[in-house]
Every structure is written in structure tokens, then in C-alpha cells.
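#dry-run=false #mode=assembly
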Amino acid sequence: MAIILGIDPGSVKTGFGIIKVDGNRHEYVTSGVIRLPITEDLPARLKVIHDSLQEIIQTYSPRFVAVEQVFMAKSAGSALKLGQARGAAIVACVTSGLEVAEYSALQIKQAVVGTGAAKKEQVQHMVKVLLKLPAVPQEDAADALGAAICHANTRSGLLNLSGVTSIRRGRMR
Amino acid sequence: MAIILGIDPGSVKTGFGIIKVDGNRHEYVTSGVIRLPITEDLPARLKVIHDSLQEIIQTYSPRFVAVEQVFMAKSAGSALKLGQARGAAIVACVTSGLEVAEYSALQIKQAVVGTGAAKKEQVQHMVKVLLKLPAVPQEDAADALGAAICHANTRSGLLNLSGVTSIRRGRMR
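#status=ok
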């Protein structure tokens, strides 16, 4: 049994989702969105991401963290903001002693829907189905849960969950 | 008397510089460059930035932190990497209870050289002169020291140093 935290970092909202994995069974634990105080300055906003995630980590004690990898952003400006949010989120996890695995959007779509060409709505729908949720979770929370499901479903993830080996970045060591 | 930490975050090297300010007197304390292990994955690299800066903060107990503000990067890819490094660096400071002020390159050049049109080499030269250094410091360290000098020299910075008021983002509160 392993608890996985998925994170979808963003400069306005950061989604998170926690699932419990036991063999092939995925169980929903919690999910939500950390809304950043847009009236505050950058350091204060990054502190909110960091502190909120550390609180979530302390409360639910996940063993693994999965974050969506970003290859391209719309513009240099939005990439900088997204990068700052990712940096704050990842630091919150590594300073808590957690291993952080990054998965591409393609890997997450493949793991959740079965095809890398899946649309956002299909990912959200399958997250609802796979975790037996009463309704489709909020977009950022669904993306975070998708990353967590991806970590559980990838071969390396499964190996790691069963304690066969340790992984980082989805690769076996 | 106040100790100011200047940081020049980067995804390959992160410069830092510490100065001691007493009225109009600036005294060099230390500076250097945190080199990131490029063979490691992103979470491990961000942890190096975070942990190194927290160690520096614990060792020198700065009261203020100044970071160069970034408006534009060369590309979305480099902006994302820079953003992640900035996020890790800023989180290391705010979780240590420090206020982080951001200054534009223009503000730093004006504060150090006296003109916003100054070239990089002029900033480095003036950092050497102002801090009475035997040689020009390494580029990233010089930029970090420049940010620290800028914080000390700005009106809001001076007000803050003398305990008249508290500032954030260079604005009086």
C-alpha cells in the first residue's frame, strides 16, 4: 500500500490530489486547489504554495510525489511564473524527504485514458471513473490526481510500490 | 547595521553575495556561486539551491534579501528553468522568515553604477570599487552583490535599514 501525492503547479492555482494504491486498486483520499493570494507579492505567493503543500504532506504522509513535466509554455512570461510555482512546489516535497517523479502530459494521458491523444475532458472523466468519484473533480485537482494515477500505473511506479527497486524520474536504478 | 543577502538565481549556477551595511558604509562579507549538479534530476538540483541558501542564511543571519527581478527571458524554455531556480531560492528565504525584495536590472544598475544603461562589466567593476575588493568577483556573485547594494542604497531600503518603516517589494507600507 502506498500513498501518492500528485501536484499540478500553477502561478494562480496549484492543484493537488492524493490517492492510496494497493496492488491494482486505486482509492481516492483527497484533492483540492491551493488558490494563491494575487494581491500579495511573489515571495508571499510562493510561500503559500510551499506551506500548503508541506501541511498536506504532514497530514497525509504520502510516499511518492508525481508532478506533470512541462516542456513548453505559451510565452516566456508565463513560463517564468509557472517555473517559480513549480520550484516552490518541488522544494516543498524534496525538503520533506520525498522523491519527486516528473511525468509528461503524454505519459499521464496514456496512463489515465489509454491514449496520449486524449483531451483534457477525457482525462477528467477517467479520473472520476478510476477513482469512483461522484462527480468530475475541478480541473487542476483532476490533473493532479491524473499525475498520481500515472505514477501508480507506470511500470517503474508499480515496481517501486511493491518495493522491488527504487526509482527516480520514472527510471529504475 | 544590517546584513543583506543578494541572490542571482540561475538553473546552472546561483550567485550569492552578503554585505554588511552601517549607515552609508558597505562592507563585503562573502560571496560565491552555488553550482548545480547537472547530472542530477530537477528536484535534486532545486534541493541544492534551497539547502545551500538555507545554510548561508543560518551562517550569516542576513536581515534582508534582494533578488533581481526578471521580466523577460530569451525563450519559454529558459524562462521555465530560471523560474524553477528562482522559486527554490525565494522559498529558501521566505521559509527562513526573511523578507525578499525584488529589484529590476535597471534599478540595480542605477544603484551600483549610477545609470540604468550601464553594461555588465561596469556593474562588476563598481561592485569591486564600492566593496573595496582586491579583484572583480565572479559574474553571478557580482550580480548578487549588486542586488544587495541596490537594496541598501534605495530610499526604501535605507528607510527600512534605519528601522523607520517596513517595506516589501521596495514599497513603503
